[in-house]
Amino acid sequence: MSDKVAIVTGGSRGIGAEAAKLAGAQGYTVIVNFVSNQSAADKVVGEITSAGGKAYALQGDMQHEDDVLALFEFAKSKGTIKALVNNAGVVDHAARLDEMSLERLNRIFAINLTGAFLCAREAVRAMSTKHGGSGGSIVNLSSAAAKLGAGTQYIDYASAKGAIDTMTVGLAREVAEEGIRVNAVRPGVIDTDIHASGGQPDRAQELASIIPMKRPGDAIEVAKAIIWLMSDDASYSTGTIIDVSGGRSIVP
What we know:
Blueprint: E1 4-8, H1 14-25, E2 29-34, H2 38-50, E3 54-59, H3 65-76, E4 80-86, H4 102-127, E5 136-141, H5 145-148, H6 155-175, E6 180-187, H7 194-197, H8 203-206, H9 219-230, E7 241-244
Parallel strand pairs: 1-2, 1-4, 2-3, 4-5, 5-6, 6-7
């Protein structure tokens, strides 16, 4: 078999970056997808290659089908696609539903939901034994918000992640006999810059008091769960959603 390839969408920062680096350490040729921050993506690639791995950065916005198709074609040129980390995602500023515009809703659903569906579709086409593939693993990124609702914050994002949970279970059943395992990780409050992109740079620390473990999580803690689900150690796990949330069950 040619090099085993792992695609990590949104791989230039936060959880995606840590997952990409761990995948590289596990022997995958890693495709680090990014939207705009070329230097951050190059830094992740540099860390992987300096540790003896193989990695490439490729720009693409996962809400656009053409970019998704280009990402998978590029990945195929580097080896056999064996893993997809469906990580790309965004939040917007905290708001109630009655304050949300159609433009915001379309953007949140296009990136967090439709993009994930498109990537999963292409991963199935590449990996499924039904299509001549040799199997593989898809790990979706959900969120504790899917269960908690994120009222007065971003119920649009939470709703998109709830749909990711549903897709994970349904797709796992669709392709279980075709060599593909489909699982998800449901992070809680993780100390990454996604909070700053939503206008709340200190949110992770501010919520520490309502987390049973009294601290936000680190991106690497989520990435380790992702890599476990990708690995042969999780060979009998599909349709599984792992909470990595410090025990959090309430929101303010």
